[in-house]
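Quick note —
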Amino acid sequence: MSASLKDKSVVLHIDASPRGGESFSRRAADVFLRDLQHRQPDLVVDRLSLWNETLPDFSADALAAKYAVLGKREHRSNEARAWNCIRRLIMRLDDSAKIVLSTPMWNLSVPYPLKHYIDLITQPGLSFRFEPGLGYTPLLRDRPVMVIVASAGDFSLGTDWGRPDLASTYLKQALRFIGLASSQCVAVGPTAGEPALIEAAEQRAHAKLRAAAGTF
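Predicted structure written out below.
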């Protein structure tokens, strides 16, 4: 976290769309964040744009560092450098008081930079712990998380022409695994097809988000 955000109540906005202002998920997140800041004027938004941020590679050194943690051995210097990059990313997440994650649905799941980010922040000793005989324990403290998923299809009834929404399910489980169990999800869709249906879907999602901001 930058010095300017230290000691402030921060909401981390993880933006997984490359489309900027044309993005349905980004517009929905902006509606939610504006309403949230109106209700909580001291709240500061830290925006993490996954398409503009230089995320560290999950390289051979990073993977070796992960296995060093699991094997309870000291990191070599190259492993320590890779692990520290990942640690800083997780600290930025964990320093936030609240989290907003907005993303489009791609091929029933999430865009690859978001999957990359989740792979980076899901690490033993940093965001979860494994103990033989006990299993997995999340290490991050829980906090409010809003997940916004925009899709070309309408998944309001669970499926769209027989296609499942794997994105929302995956995100909720991935967040829960590291300790972020208090997540709620608002869908924006359909975002393709008849203009009147698209506009109505977007307005419904925005209304849900404004209502949710009151208790977030």
